[in-house]
Amino acid sequence: MKHKIVITYLILIFGLFTGCKKFLDLPAKNQRAVITVTDVKSLLASQLRGVITPKIKPLYGQIIPACPTPATVMFGAYSDDIDFENALPTYLGLTSTNLIKTTESSYADILLWNQQATSTMLWSHHYDIVGFLNSLIDQLGTIKDVSNTDQDQLLGEMYTNRAYSLFKLLQYYGIYNNADMGIPIYLHTGEGVLGIKPKRETHVNSYKIILEDLNKALEMVNRTSPAVGFNALYNKRFINHLLAQVYWYKAESPAKEASDYANVKTYSLAALEAVDALIPTTAAARINAYGGKDPNYPVIVQQNSFSNADVLSLYGSGYQYIGFGPMNIPLNADFAALFTSTDIRVANYFSAAGAAGKTLSAVWPSDGTTSGSDKSGQTVMFKPEEAYLMLMEAQYRLGAEGDALITLNKFRAFRNAGNFTGLSGAALLTEIINERRRELFGDTDKRWLDLKRYANKTITRNIKFFNKQYNITVPPNDYRYALPIPLVEIQQNNNMVPNPGWTLIEY
């Protein structure tokens, strides 16, 4: 027999230091019974308001947006676009009169792959959301006389959001080249399952669960339109885009299937329907679009409730024009060399200062303005540009190299970056990967995930902290491409197999 489920309105139950097994538990205080479809709508609306409203915290999940500023900074520091060896004196040379001054230990943590608090925060955040949605999905199934429209709009929204959080967990914590090391997943709630300690699913089972949610949501949105003013991720374009992302990431994983890239192509094309005229084609238009100031740009823009200090400490102050640092952050030469002089992204990314303009602009990552001011690490979900990047790779992998080159050049036309001619084979794939790097610079977790997925680069970092030299080498498929499972999760769940290799550096 199903039990009536109660959900808190006032106190978020899981907290930063509870494990994912706690996502099965429900709160015992400040309760409201969920017994009607109106109750479900009210709770889900409170959650979705935090998804789509700038700087409003969702009802469940500890943070906003899906990739908050500390995570954007962590993933940027774990990547290869900034020349951190030459940036370090700039970072540490600030005085108290500068706008942003970050401690040496904070820089050591992120630049030596020693930052575990942010990983714990991401784990807890996404499992909180999964637990909340599990409870609502289960409870909706006990309510009688739910209309077909309500059923689709509510369940479709919840399935898409749950799939999104599970997918991010798999990307962050799954070991990409180990078939058994997916993530723990449980999709039900209630007294009969409280205290269960789920094991890590295989990659195959993890993707199966995620894709089942998304395919159900797509079936629903194809027959029932979203509710205007209510639904967020329950959107045909967004669901198709997310399906393309999942198949794209799956296609090089231990769960890969021969049909993956065909699915990437199908869903990318669906996500790109009637979108070309909406893609920004100037440097200023990109900033406006990614700052949420272009109402026609078909994305969800999530702005941080966190201080921007974190992103400024890594990517440089937005107030460089009046002398505040850190300023003129050097970019790696191999990244800077990827751009043609006419490319509109040059104006976004590069400042006029520094050798050959290879230092970072004062307005990137974008904060939605074109003048010097605070930068921001907001999350822009479902960029059509990313769908184009997935499409061209799918065409290449399916053997249609001519189509892939046409799509690559079409995309580069949006950026006034010039055409490639005669590219084929490995050289074409290299430029498709390079185009991802050019387009997605500073965008949340994107470059780190590309390094993880393509496994095509070794990062070396020879850097000194507290008068001690650290020589770090991160080869492809290194353990650092699967974030550490929080210690509290390992302690609470004896079925949990931790990600190996992670030990804290003592300074």
Kindly state the number of beta strands. 6
Please tell me the overall pLDDT: 88
What is the architecture of the domain at 6-67 and 119-234 at the second tier of CATH?
Alpha Horseshoe
Work out the helicity level: 40-55%
Return the CATH topology of the domain at 6-67 and 119-234.
Serine Threonine Protein Phosphatase 5, Tetratricopeptide repeat
H/E order of the elements? Answer: EEHHHHHHHHHHEHHHEHHHHEEH
Q: Counting H and I runs of at least 4 residues, what is the number of helices?
A: 18
Per CATH, the class of the domain at 6-67 and 119-234 reads Mainly Alpha
As a percent range, the share of strand residues is 5-15%
Report, as a whole number of angstroms, the end-to-end distance.
55 Å
Overall shape: it is globular
- Ranges where pLDDT stays below 50 over 5 or more residues in a row are 1-18, 23-31
Q: Gyration radius, to the nearest Å?
A: 23 Å
Query: What structural category arises from helix and sheet content?
Result: mainly alpha
Q: Largest beta sheet: what is the strand line-up?
A: 1-2
Note the main sheet.
2 strands, antiparallel
What does this structure look like?
There is one protein chain. This protein is mostly helical. The chain has a domain at 6-67 and 119-234: Serine Threonine Protein Phosphatase 5, Tetratricopeptide repeat, CATH 1.25.40. It has 18 helices and six strands. It has helices spanning 37-52, 69-77, 84-92, 104-111, 117-140, 148-173, 203-223, 236-250, 260-271, 283-290, 309-315, 333-336, 345-349, 384-397, 401-414, 425-439, 446-454, 487-492; strands spanning 6-8, 31-33, 300-302, 379-381, 459-465, 468-474. The strands form three sheets. It has a two-stranded antiparallel sheet with strand order 1-2. The protein has a two-stranded antiparallel ribbon with strand order 3-4. Strands 5-6 form a two-stranded antiparallel ribbon. A hairpin with a 2-residue loop joins strand 5 and strand 6 (468-474). Helix 7 (203-223) runs antiparallel to helix 8. It starts with 5 loop residues before the first strand and ends in a 15-residue tail after the last helix. Residues 1-18 and 23-31 have low confidence and may be disordered.
